[in-house]
Amino acid sequence: MRLVTTRGLKEGHELAKPIYNDKGRVLVQSHVKLTRPIINRLLELGVTFVYVKDELSEDIVIHSTVSEQVKADSINTVKSLFHSFKDTGFKESSYLLDKTTQKMTSIVDTLINQIQSNDQMLTLMSDIFISDDYLFEHSVDVTIYTIALANELKLSNDQIRETGLGALLHDIGKVFIPEGILKKTSQLTAGEFETIKTHPELGFEYLRKTDFPLLVAHCAYQHHERLNGSGYPRGLIGDEIHTYGKILAIADVFSAVTSDRVYREAMLPQEGLEILYAGSGTLFDQEMIRIFRDSITVYPNGVTVELNNGAHAIVVKQNNKLPNRPIVRVFSHHDQVVKPYDLDLAKELNLTVVGYKL
């Protein structure tokens, strides 16, 4: 199966993987032949990429690090919990979070188990979800990226669980921000942006009154801090930022730029990494970015890429810990169709991927 942009879909394309909503229900089943109305509906729903069938890529396996059902269940739990906080208010709802500590920990433990039992690099692009609110899916995605990075940093299981809980709740302060500001599609005013910037402190003040460890509250407090002091709310510098805060900063930004937003389409993983690279050593911890890069899938299976020799190819399989050097299937050279053949870029060191072709 091949990963293509929704805008590039044509009538008659056959869907290779189903499209889910955030309740885990299938909205569009696999094997469906796409019509113009279906394609238009997918565009309206904000679906950026889909997997389609074609003969060239029919043997390519698309791997999900976290199962669709686990992710959907996690999103629904977060959604229900956050709505409870919003409905009952800031002070009055603290007891609700205390009573759900076990449920939240269970989500994190399930995600830890799925990530640690998987010997392949992390990929979320295989999950085609339609969510009715960015906040909930973002919270779960940030948790998955956080756990993966914390695991690669060789933190203890207790520390991985703690930072995972912090990631799941890092944006809890946003439930106290007016929805009109959170979902605004046009540019925020200076005043609206200042309101948005209060969410780390709101989340910290909320979480520190609960039964969660204080460092979980500090994850909410510090995920927008940056090494050079340009972050908020306190402008912390360097090691004034806790290790968890440094991890969350990377996971939060990567999830944000590789997700669909109301004002722009999702970036692909390599494009998201470029955002992190641009702030390496100044905004984000350089070694953590390197470790994060080596633990995620940069060019997902099924995506079409261009090589430095002018060839176009589909990614067939990953080489673990070598995200920039997958196994690819070349099908054209300088726009001339050739008989397909596979190349292992871990062995063909003179060849590199120079970009996506979607």
From TrEMBL:
Residues 113-308 form the HD-GYP domain. SUPFAM superfamilies: HD-domain/PDEase-like. It comes from Amphibacillus xylanus (strain ATCC 51415 / DSM 6626 / JCM 7361 / LMG 17667 / NBRC 15112 / Ep01). This is HD-GYP domain-containing protein. InterPro entries: HD/PDEase_dom, HD_GYP_dom, HDIG_dom. SMART domains: HDc.
